Amino acid sequence: MPELPVIWLKEHLTPYDVYTHGVTRIIVDEHTPYQHMQIVETPTCGRALILDDHWQSSTADEFFYHEPLVHGTFVLHALAASTDRGGPRSVLIAGGGDWAAARDALSWNTVERVVLAEIDQRVLDACRKHFPGFHAKCEDDPRLEVIVGDAFETIDRAAADPAAAFDVILYDLSDPIEDGPSAHLFTKATFERTKKALAPGGVLAVQAGGVAPAEMHTHLAVHAALRSVFPRVLPMITSVPIFATPLGFLLAPDAPITASPEPERTNAILRQAGVDGLRMLDGRSLLASLQPPVYLREAAIHAPRAV
Asked: Do 231 and 132 fall into the same domain?
């Protein structure tokens, strides 16, 4: 019998819809210089990170989020690369303060360098302490460089120096809401700079918010901004139970990539990269995630381009 919750925390999905979680213990509750951070225990989600009242990640279902974002993007980069490298060598994670994206990126044997650029030192410290499975001692890996600061500064430096460009850039950021700490990273101007920070054949992957009809306006705005900069944008859809709504990633490649990767080829790339033990992503699930529903495809086509 699960432990009864001692407090109910509400997250507004829209102005009219609320997702309520029962919490048995509040481990961290503090205001950092950038946001309100909470770490809580729940009977169904395990331990969870909450930023500005928005649930970010939980030990029970983080793999629904991180596996497509990291491994799905890396597979598509491997398929698109002009040379058969098997996967990216250099990776920038913008955000990623819970450490899980860095953990997954470092599991690829093709990766030589990962830069984690997170603005909030207190989120990094709290998640290192309270989410050991996310952190997985990744700071012991010499391939990882952690930069505490605005990710745009790292992007800007890479854009100015082709030798510092990245094969993959992951936007593992909080939702692109106007008053959020990462809002400035989702503009057309920032995407133009980010494109210059990609190496030839590189891929940008962006966490672009929910895609349910009632809340897809943010996702469509990010899609429009990307389309105004990149010649092609591919949606990748996943469902993370803690979010109570389907989530949309957007992939913006520097070179053509397929939305129909052959499952056996995907599985072979993962094996060659030394990646195993995944719980969500394989060749079949990656192929499915790249096939968005009709309503979303049509809405993206008709959404106005950013100016």
From this structure: yes
43 and 156 part of one domain:
no
Contact in structure between 28 and 126 (CB atoms under 8 Å): yes
DSSP letters, 241-274, are GGGTEEEEEEEEESS---SS--HHHHHHHHHHTT
List of long-range contacts for 53-57, beta carbons under 8 Å, 24+ apart: 53/9, 53/10, 53/11, 53/12, 54/11, 54/174, 54/175, 55/11, 55/19, 55/21, 55/242, 55/243, 56/98, 56/174, 57/98, 57/100, 57/131, 57/134, 57/242
* CATH number, residue 33: 2.30.140.10
Phi, psi dihedrals of residue 132, rounded to the nearest 5°: -60, -30
- Judged against a pLDDT cut of 70, whether residue 177 lies above it is answered with no
The two three-digit tokens of residue 42, written as one number: 């729940």
Domain membership of residue 276 as a residue range: 63-302
* 289 and 200 share one domain: yes
Considering the domain architecture, whether residues 170 and 206 belong to the same structural domain is answered as: yes
Instruction: Determine, yes or no, domain membership for 1.
Output: no
Per the model's pLDDT, the better-predicted residue between 19 and 177 turns out to be 19
pLDDT per residue as tens digits for the range 1-12: 556 768 999 999
Copy the structure tokens of residue 237.
Answer: 């859809």
| Residue 135 near residue 128 (C-beta atoms within 8 A) | yes
Tokens 């990609």 -> residue: 198
Q: Which residues of 24-137 form beta strands (DSSP E)?
A: 25-31, 36-42, 46-51, 54-58, 90-95, 113-118
Indicate the Cα dihedral angle 252, 149, 52, 25, nearest 10°.
Answer: 110
| pLDDT value of position 3 | 64
Catalytic positions, written as ranges: 172
CATH of the domain at 232: 3.40.50.150
